[in-house]
């Protein structure tokens, strides 16, 4: 009988393991209650699609009948310009050449701007593009100048960031270099050595 007892134990353990494996994990879920009809979410009606007028060109091409961003804002037009190779070309000549067919012209009013126009044109600026017209103008002028576009008069003006004088500063005389006071430069401190 002793030989039968371990077999019963093994059979009992096997039956218990089979029962656990077949039943798996049991979880209890809360019953799902449908929302009342009054509180049901209404589905919004799809908005009417915006009609974009198009024209068929050829068999497979449809073209929208709307201006591009570069046609709305002329400074966004893409240019690729090679300057005429003149040994005495100036920044003003380069700016005029870039603006030649853009619809804009340079304003020639301020004395400081005339100083910009007289600078020699760098060799790196003999070919500009492809880039936007705004970027080409800013490249030619350099980082010391701000670009101002008058869209009504279609003029491009440049000024230094600190040159916009208000009515209060218009009567004040310009500060010369001799009149400026600078704080004394600190002397370097050296330790552990002779002077």
From TrEMBL:
Q: Tell me yes or no: is Signal among this UniProt entry's keywords.
A: yes
N-terminal signal peptide: 1-29
Q: Which UniProt keywords apply?
A: Signal
Please list where the region (Disordered) is annotated: 162-195
The record, for NCBIfam families, names:
conj_PilL (TIGR03748)
- Give the protein name, as stated in the record: PilL N-terminal domain-containing protein
């Amino acid at each position: 009988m002793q030989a039968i007892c371990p077999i019963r134990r093994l059979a009992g353990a096997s039956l218990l393991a089979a029962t656990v494996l077949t039943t798996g994990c049991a979880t209890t879920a809360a019953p799902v209650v449908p929302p009342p009809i009054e509180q049901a979410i209404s589905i919004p009606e799809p908005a009417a699609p915006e009609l974009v007028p198009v024209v068929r060109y050829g068999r497979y091409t449809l073209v929208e009948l709307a201006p591009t961003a570069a046609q709305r804002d002329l400074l966004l037009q893409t240019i690729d310009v090679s300057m005429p190779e003149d040994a005495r070309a100036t920044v003003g000549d380069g700016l005029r050449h870039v603006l030649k067919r853009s619809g804009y012209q340079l304003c020639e009013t301020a004395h400081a701007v005339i100083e910009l126009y007289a600078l020699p044109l760098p060799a790196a600026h003999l070919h500009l593009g492809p880039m936007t017209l705004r970027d080409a103008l800013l490249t030619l002028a350099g980082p010391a100048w701000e670009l101002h576009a008058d869209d009504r008069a279609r003029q491009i003006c440049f000024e230094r960031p600190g040159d916009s004088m208000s009515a209060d500063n218009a009567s004040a005389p310009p500060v010369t270099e001799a009149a400026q006071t600078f704080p004394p430069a600190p002397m370097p401190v050296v330790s552990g050595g002779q002077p």
